[in-house]
Design goal:
By secondary structure, the chain is α+β, with helices and mostly antiparallel strands. The two termini are about 35 Å apart. Strand 6 and strand 7 form a beta hairpin. A four-stranded antiparallel sheet has the order 1-9-8-5, with no helix packed on it. The protein is about 20% helix and about 25% strand. It contains three helices and nine strands.
Length: about 180
């Protein structure tokens, strides 16, 4: 999910004169076609922290969480922002794109976003998780994927004015993952 900018107050669905599938309506009375950054069939690549192994092969830091990485002498991990497409190993094919209100996320969608309401190491995280679960699913006494997603979303977006409470319009981008092995 990615914040739609600028934020409309309403989005309507259906073919528009310019060929979009959505029309965005703004508080100043203006409206315009709404175009997603990505469309079905686009191929996206995932940037990861990476390095060069002693063998000269590309290695990925995510594969060495519990063990020492065989980085080449003098080599350091390179940040994901500097990863060229040629060394990427994970590609995503966009299968669906649609606008949605953030709080319309389902429990199943929150799970697919990659959050997990278990394995909480500290009491502070547990308190935050339970608080968001009560906000997202009133009456629940156990943690939810939506509650964990709301807490994670706020960690990333609340300071920018797009918190869970504001319920911003977001693009929902669904994809199929393919992993490429580099030789």
């Amino acid at each position: 999910r990615r914040v739609i900018r600028p934020q409309p107050y309403m989005i309507t669905e259906g073919p528009t004169p310019q060929g979009s599938n959505w029309m965005a309506w703004y508080a100043d009375g203006k409206c315009s076609d709404l175009w997603p950054k990505h469309k079905i069939g686009d191929i996206l690549w995932v940037r990861e922290t990476w390095g060069i192994a002693t063998t000269g092969d590309i290695i990925y830091k995510a594969d060495y969480v519990d063990k020492k990485a065989p980085l080449a002498e003098g080599a350091k991990w390179r940040p994901s922002i500097h990863m060229p497409k040629e060394v990427a190993r994970i590609f995503l094919e966009v299968t669906n794109v649609r606008p949605e209100r953030l709080q319309d996320i389902t429990e199943e969608d929150a799970l697919r976003e990659g959050v997990h309401p278990w394995g909480l190491e500290t009491q502070q995280r547990m308190d935050k998780w339970c608080r968001y679960t009560l906000i997202t699913d009133p009456g629940r006494t156990t943690g939810t994927f939506r509650g964990e997603f709301a807490a994670f979303w706020d960690h990333l977006n609340a300071k920018r004015g797009y918190g869970w409470k504001e319920n911003p319009w977001v693009w929902v981008i669904e994809f199929r993952k393919e992993v490429i092995k580099h030789d």
